[in-house]
Amino acid sequence: MKPSDFMKSHSVGADAAPLKAYSDLVFRNQEHGRKHNPYSQEVREQHSIEIGDPELLQKSIEEDYIGELGTLSADPLQNRKYLAVVVITLASRSAIRGGLAPEMAFSLSDSYIRKIDESSSQSQITRLMRSAEFQFARMVQEQKAHQKKKSGKRKSLRGAMQGLYLFPSS
Question: In the 8-state DSSP scheme, what is residue 161?
Answer without folding.
Answer: H
